[in-house]
Amino acid sequence: MQESKQCQNCKQNFTIESEDFDFYKKIEVPAPTWCPECRMVRRWAFRNGMHLYKHKCDVPGHNEELISKYSEDAPVKVYDYEYWKSDAWSPLDYGRKYDEGRMFFEQFGKLFNDVPVKNLDIINSENCSFCPGVTDCKDCYMVVGGFMAEGCLFSNTCGMSKRCVDTLTVVACDTLYECSACTKCVNLMFCYHSVNCMDSKFLFDCRGCSNCFGCVGLRNRSYCISNKQYSKGEYLEQLRKINTGSYQSLTNAIESFEKFLRFFPRKFAFMKNAVNCTGNVIENAKDCQHCFEVINNVENCKYSFVIGEGIKDSYDLFAGGRGAELVYESGNINAGRRVFFCDRIQNSADMRYSVNCNSCSNCFGCVGLKSKEYCILNRQYTKEEYESLVPRIIKHMNDMPYISKRKNPSTGSGQVYKYGEFFPVDIFHFGYNETAAQEFNPLTKEEALEKGYRWKDNKGTSHLVEIHTSDIHDDIRNVSDDIFGKKIECAHQKVCNHNCTGAFRIVSEEMVFYRTYNIALPRLCPNCRYFNRLKFRTNWKLFHRRCMCNQQPTTNNLQHTIDNQTAPYQNTSKHFHGDSPCPNEFETSYVPDRPEIVYCEACYQSEVA
């Protein structure tokens, strides 16, 4: 059975497949009324990703200033995470009896604002007090999505890795700088979508390479520069001419590599050991559809992102691992089972509409609980009472649904939230532009407010810039320790769409890394560096396209040809389709109007060295 529905949010049609209905029946939830993309954006907008603020501790009798994911104007009480996880207070003190005269989401929204939150999402980690969100990490700074990471700085989604600085989605790596989507790599700079590589700089889609510079699509090669083979002596002699410690020299190298990369075909998706999967950046997975950044024994998942470590049978999940199973419409779920419409749930089972709970089971509409079971709105019940009341609440949610404050211009009514919908955007704590939603689905302030989201106005940096980028020494060897703690001007000067902070500081661990590996001092704030890194990550959507091998170049490809005064890419080997255009079609995350040349699996494998 297949059914076409109109999205309640964007009004576009979407399809629910027969296997989707089987999943919804298995977990006993109704079919969604929002399309997959709108559901995805709604989950992304629920929590802050990388923004940090100063916030006074709200623990009674405490007045210290905290580093927090919540700004001073957020509608919550913020506790230091060490105090938050202690037994000095109890979330059950905020419990309340369910009121069948009021809408469920109205009651949950009030509880959500009342229960104190921890300033940072730090779990079982040591010396990570400036990290928005890490688990089992040590000695990290400004890391979000870190798992078993050590000594990492300014990184997003780094797992089982050490000494990674300014990275995005790296797994089992050591000593990386400005890298993205790399696995099992050591000592790399400016490398992307590469596996089992070491001692190299500027790589794209390389496997098993060492001592390579500025290469694309190589396999098991050494001492190559721009895909050209050199002897070891020749390679080292050429590298001595490139000083990555000089900002100007490094900038030239970056620009040269990006121009070189433009004319190489890209494989439609980065997949390895991915059986019956669609999406991008998938490794060791089976039966995963429309999934992105998936690794390590993931099975039977759909519409899910940044997941791994044995997750199975889950839909609409953003971030999770450790064998989570039967998860739906949730975010940041680790070691959970039957977790629906939740966020930040650890080691828990049979959880619905709950946030920030650990080692719990059978909870409905709860916030901040630890080692509890059979609770509703943070109030304790017996097993019998819980099992009797939950079906009544679900029926009540359907009979008295929550109506959002945002009105649809055509109907004059708000969105309807019955049982089966994620939390209404009306109760979110963060501004839309503080979340990952703004990265992948950017909106203006007016658009976000019209859709019912909050918005965080940038009030500017309260500190004066002490060092202008033009005054920084070009070479890292000439930069003195006097720069520590000084407010350095970001070169973008807030004239960008990257949530630029305007100024930034260099910390001692960061400087040690730059000096050790001869890396020029950055001229951009961490936020702007992060957004620059995103250009190597494709959209988390899929588009039906045809292989471009032997096709006429698109307008964008042709423009690159004119700009660089060179011919479009010419195949280096004979392909199965001969001189005719390749007939293969596929689902890819490369948007049709992007400039990349996109090949199918067969054509790409014919071209990689």
What does this structure look like?
- By secondary structure, the protein is α/β, with parallel strands linked by helices.
- Among the domains are: about 125-265; about 470-535, no CATH class; about 545-605, no CATH class.
- Helix content is about 20%, strand content about 30%.
- The strands form ten sheets. Strands 21, 22, 23, 24, 25, 26, 27, 28, 29, 30, 31, 32 and 33 form a 13-stranded mixed sheet that branches.
- The longest helix has 17 residues, at about 385-400.
Q: Give a short account of the largest sheet.
A: 13 strands, mixed
Shape: globular
**Mean model confidence by pLDDT:** 92
Query: What distance lies between the first and last C-alpha atoms, to the nearest angstrom?
Result: 45 Å
Assembly state: single chain
Round the Cα radius of gyration to an integer and report it.
Answer: 25 Å
- Number of DSSP-assigned strands: 40
Low-confidence stretches: 558-566
Assign a percent range to the helix content. Answer: 10-25%
- Structural class, from secondary structure content? alpha/beta
Number of helices: 13
What is the beta-strand fraction?
25-35%
Which keywords apply here?
13-stranded mixed β-sheet; 20% helix; 40 strands; alpha/beta; seven-stranded mixed β-sheet; single chain; 609 residues
Summarize this structure briefly:
20% of the residues lie in helices and 31% in strands.
Architecture blueprint of SSEs:
Elements: E1 3-6, E2 13-16, H1 18-27, H2 36-44, E3 53-56, E4 65-68, E5 78-79, H3 81-84, H4 104-114, E6 117-118, E7 121-123, E8 133-135, E9 141-147, E10 153-159, E11 162-165, E12 168-171, E13 174-177, E14 180-183, E15 186-192, E16 198-204, E17 210-216, E18 222-225, E19 228-229, H5 232-239, H6 247-262, E20 266-267, E21 271-275, E22 279-289, E23 291-302, E24 305-308, E25 312-321, E26 325-334, E27 337-340, E28 343-346, E29 349-352, E30 355-358, E31 361-364, E32 373-376, E33 379-380, H7 383-399, E34 402-407, E35 414-417, H8 437-440, H9 445-450, E36 488-489, E37 503-504, H10 508-516, H11 526-533, E38 543-546, H12 555-564, E39 585-588, E40 598-599, H13 601-607
Parallel strand pairs: 5-6, 7-8, 8-9, 9-10, 10-12, 11-13, 12-14, 13-15, 15-16, 16-17, 17-18, 20-40, 21-22, 22-23, 23-24, 23-25, 24-25, 25-26, 26-27, 26-28, 27-29, 28-30, 29-31, 31-32
Antiparallel strand pairs: 1-2, 3-4, 18-19, 32-33, 34-35, 36-37, 38-39
